[in-house]
What does this fold into?
Amino acid sequence: MDNKQFYKSVFFLVLPMALQNLINVGISSTDVIMLGRIGEKTLSGASLGSQVFFILSLFLFGITSGGAVLIAQYWGKGDLPTIQKIFGIEMKYALLVSFVFMTATFAFANPIMHIFTNDPEAAAEGVSYLHIVCFSYVLSAITMVYLNTMRSMEHVVIATLVYLCSLITNIAANYIFIFTPLNMGIRGAAIGTFAARILELGIVLFYVWKKDTKVKLFDEKFRDGIIGKGSGTVWKTFFKVCIPILTSGLLWAVSLPMQTALLGHLSADAIAANSVSSTFFQYLKVIVIAIAGASAVVIGKDIGSNDEEKVRCNGRTLSVLYLAIGLLLGTVLFLLRSPLLSMYRLTPQATLYADHFMIIMSVIMVGMSYQMPVGVGIIQGGGDTKFSMYLNLISVWCIVMPLSFLAAFYWKLPVELVVIAVQSDQIFKCLPKFLRFKSYKWIQKLTAID
It folds into this structure.
């Protein structure tokens, strides 16, 4: 593949993935934005209730990401029957996990909500939300597994269509059930989410029935994966890859509330400034996540095609591309910080903090744009999932969290330095990931053991 064709193939993977990520941000924030016009308790109930799906999504992410690493390699090898078998294994465990979450959430919604809040009104609103939205968990699991499998085989447009239709449906249904005479409040938002998930699955099933004439994932080998027939070696490889990804995600997720609590103890001006600067940072981060996902597909396919020199060459090209994109995104954030901040009505001190935070985030963006795609797209995409797990364990729990708490509560450093401490892993992860990349030990041909 020449450079022009290579860049073209990467671009046509990145663009739909970036759109999907933006749409997913819109879907996740729709209920919060629309319920914010009703009242604080209703908004809190929906926000806290959605944490259950966030935890479920971590498990589903571990399952689908582990499957994606394998599927990309088998796609490069041209082994569709084994891909169907892996798809069946993914679907089985995704259905199992989502069914457990659905039944537990419906049965224990009240105790679950009281884990997140002591406010009885917010908890009651959250219970009403969970009793409806929990039935969408299984639907989401089926859709997520299918779309991630298709993405690993370079079929990415269908996911963009599904999630765009889902966003439109969610907004329309929320409006009908919340702001019309129906006036169902938080239950209306839950029904809107449920309706969107039904539509997602409906589009997927229609696509499988009418359009998916080449891949044919729901086939005999898919059933073999579901029941475990003749899939012992594939099953073991799947969990060998999947468990480190899942563990890494859970370690990261557990650290989030602690980081939020830490920043929540700063001044009101610093909290507002951090909220504003983080919003712009997250929108640009969508591009980086898409690049990482596209890279994992490209690298996995190259490894599966049994051309190690091509893997090394494309890996080097991608690593340089990451750095160039990081410099571009960091420059954009730095140059646009004043026009972006002018859209907000902040106190002079909060505005000053936000300006400083966005300068910091501009530098952080460069590091993140390199280390995340190298770690997720190249190293993890190449089959080496344990390295990222160990690195996240050490960086988050042995460096970032202790350093951040010392900076905030013991040394009592300026808030700008506290933010640097919280985000510091985006910089110091670059060196170990660069060294791991240059060793080429991450190239692990997982199809060789089938």
In short: The CA atoms of residues 177 and 188 lie 5 Å apart. The chain is about 85% helix and 0% strand. The mean pLDDT is 86. The longest helix spans residues 40-77.
